[in-house]
Each structure stands twice: as C-alpha cells, then as structure tokens.
Design goal:
This protein has about 290 residues and is an alpha/beta fold. Helices cover about 40% and strands about 25% of the residues. The chain is built from ten helices and twelve strands. α1 runs parallel beside α2, α6 packs parallel to α8 and α6 packs across α10. The longest helix is centred in the last third of the chain and has 21 residues.
Length: about 290
C-alpha cells in the first residue's frame, strides 16, 4: 500500500497497551499513526511514545478531536469513559476499536466472527481473557452442548495498569456475556487473578466445560485448530493442556508476548493488541480497494 493510501490512526491512552499499539502501528504498511493522546502531560507513557517519534497530546478525547478526523481510533483508555468517546466520534465516520471491557459496539473475536467487523464502525474486543478463551470455547461448543463454563485468567500484576484494575468488574461481566453469546451456554463464570509472583508469570487462561457425551479426539483437534488460527496474529499463543474426562473438558492456554515494547509476560496485552491491529489493517485494505 502506498504511503498516501494508508489509513490515518490515533490511539487514546498511553499506558502499556497504548505504547505497544503505537509500536505496532508504526510498523504497519496500511496504517499511519498520527497521534497518541493521553490525559496527563507528564505521563511516562506519553514520554515513551514521543521518544518513538510519535505525535502526542495531553487532554484525551478533546485533543484528539482537535487533531482529527481519523479513519481509525483505538480506545485504550478506561471503560468508564468509552461511551463518551463513542458519543463524540459517532458522527465523524471514524472506526472506533474498543480495547476497554465495555459491552458497547459489535463484539468481534477475529478468528470466530472477524468477517462481521467490516459492517461496523464501533467494535468491541471484549477483553484479553475473552480474546484468549472465546476461540477455544467456540470451537469446543461445535462438538458438544456445554451446560456450564468456567474461565480463570491469571495475569502478571505489572501487566495490569490503573485502568485495568479499575475495570475488573466490567472485565468479568463483559467476558461472561461474550462467552454466553459465542457458545450458547447460559451458565458462565469468569474469574480474574493478578499474580505478584517473581519472576512474573506469562498470561494464563484455564477453562472448564461441563457437557455430556464429549469425545477426546474431536475436542483435542478442535482446540488445536482454534489455537493455530489465533497464532496467525499472536505467535505466543499456546495450548498447554487439554484433558477430556466423562462430562468434563479442561483446557489451559498460555500467551507469551513477542513484541518489542512490552515484556514477555504481558501476553494479555499482546493478544488483544494483535487482534486490534489486525482488524484495523483489514479495514484499511478494504477501504483502499
């Protein structure tokens, strides 16, 4: 794609997610990063992206509006303010990709329903746990009828910034809703842990599915196939265990970050950012045809 055909992009938020997004977008052939907007002029995140050569501004959505319009905006800020961001961007023609755990917008998990993204200008990426669990659970649900699903996510404490900690209730509610929707399972329980262990552990998600009549062969193959699809944009996504017993399926996955701007243990950020940039690049390619 020629430089003048790249889609203009802005990032709202300069935490770990915003920094990694900026790095990925700078390396994209289809996206042109024109602004990273944070709230605090003195934030270390804004200083880091400025050192990367990015244009920055404090003042959040207000500064973004003054600098726009943009073809794509990534919201890596806070679930509590995302609705306000969409309200002011709705009429601008911008595609807003939400990396906060709200239940607004069209819920997209790229390997499951990525084709629906083209029809929406407001996309929700659920949560990092949702992006890890939904591809696997959706694949499993094609071979059985789950009656109960439990998902436990464990992330390294340093990978969770202030906004993530403030949004834990929304994280749980939004992830549960997405799993119900993509699997048709009415009873879903999601739990989240932040581990202070040293060295910091990789992002891990343990899934338990109760269903009658399950067979190990088809379940194992379905999980492996789902993981291979996710690895197309998150190479560090790995299935570490699949156990199928009478009426019970247990799957564990681990995600290791492979990008250069976040530590290896921050696979949770690597996964959701990989999904976000993938969708933006697909949007850019479609708009250039």
């Amino acid at each position: 794609m020629a430089a003048d055909e790249r889609r203009s992009v802005a990032v709202l938020g300069a935490g770990l997610i915003g920094i990694d997004l900026a790095d990925r977008i700078q390396r994209s052939k289809g996206l042109d990063l024109r602004l990273v907007a944070g709230r605090n002029r003195e934030s270390r995140g804004l200083a880091r992206v400025a050192e990367m050569g990015c244009a920055t501004a404090s003042g959040g959505i207000t500064s973004l509006l003054k600098s726009g319009p943009f073809d794509v905006v990534f919201d890596a800020s806070n679930a509590d303010v995302h609705a306000d961001h969409w309200a002011v961007l709705r009429e601008s023609g911008t595609m807003l990709i939400d990396l906060t755990p709200t239940q607004l917008g069209t819920v997209i998990v790229p390997t499951v329903n990525g084709g629906q993204a083209a029809a929406s200008r407001h996309i929700s990426l659920v949560s990092c746990g949702g992006q890890a669990a939904v591809p696997v659970l959706h694949a499993v649900a094609q071979h059985c009828t789950p009656t109960y699903i439990e998902v436990v996510s464990t992330a390294a404490s340093p990978s969770a910034g202030r906004a993530t900690r403030l949004n834990l209730d929304q994280y749980i509610a939004t992830t549960q809703a997405a799993i119900r929707s993509f699997t048709g399972t009415p009873e879903v329980k999601v739990m989240a842990n932040l581990s202070p262990a040293r060295p910091a552990p990789a992002f891990r998600v343990a899934m338990t599915v109760l269903a009658a009549g399950v067979r190990p062969g088809p379940i194992g193959a379905a999980v492996a196939s789902a993981a291979e699809e996710v690895r197309a944009f998150t190479p560090g996504f790995a299935v570490t265990s699949v156990v199928v017993t009478d009426g019970r399926i247990s799957v564990a996955v681990e995600v290791t970050a492979t990008g250069g701007r976040i530590p290896r243990y921050a696979g949770n950020l690597d996964l959701i950012n990989g999904a976000a940039v993938l969708l933006a690049e697909q949007h850019a390619a479609a708009q250039s045809r």
